[in-house]
Amino acid sequence: MGLRELKKQQTRQAISHQATRLFLRHGFDRVTIADVAAAAQVAKMTVTNYFPRKEDLALDLHEEFVAQPARTVAARAPGESALAALRRAFLEAVDRRDAVIGFSGADFARMISESPALVARLREFHEERERALAAVLAEEGGTSPDDVVVRVVSAQLIGVHRVLFEETLRRTIAGEDHDEIAAALTGAAKDAFDLLEPSLGSYAVRPGP
């Protein structure tokens, strides 16, 4: 990473850090872009250049969140189906207590759940995830991302991730610690992915060499 890129990354992280601090202290809806800019000691335009939407200041993992399922499927091993790859990757994320699947502090989880704007933005993230996964499946299958089967498969797979994400937030707000949540998610993920196994277990299996 060059010096210019490093400086941009540091600025972005500083803005995100100050925004999160203000959101947790005052509530997402009460903090303005101007407040964040002042706390980060940058211009308002600088904030919006890095984060075009206020919601993305709180949900800073947008790009990783959206890309992760599609990237997992694209990189699956020979003989591995899309469903198996996503199951494996999710359980690995549980072991890491990964923030991308919802692990956070209770204050942060409560802030998201209590803000209609953030709940709506998260819904958009899940929809973007679904489209990204559909694009990968369609490209591999030689079909269009608008193909009904591809769209249905993507909706089912991302639907599991959406429900499990919401379950993680719910348990976090209820006061469970990360280990308790991880244990519950492991069982819930097994049940959820098992439900899809009869219909999707043999779908989009990566050909062997």
TrEMBL record:
Top-level taxon of origin: Bacteria
Keywords: DNA-binding, Transcription, Transcription regulation
One Gene Ontology term of the molecular function aspect: DNA-binding transcription factor activity
Domain HTH tetR-type: 9-69
Annotated region of DNA binding: 32-51
Keyword flag Glycosyltransferase: no
Pfam families the record matches: TetR_C_14, TetR_N
InterPro entries, sorted: Homeodomain-like_sf (IPR009057), HTH-type_TetR-like_transc_reg (IPR050109), HTH_TetR (IPR001647), MftR_C (IPR041347)
Name the UniProt record assigns to this protein: TetR family transcriptional regulator
Protein species of origin: Actinomadura verrucosospora
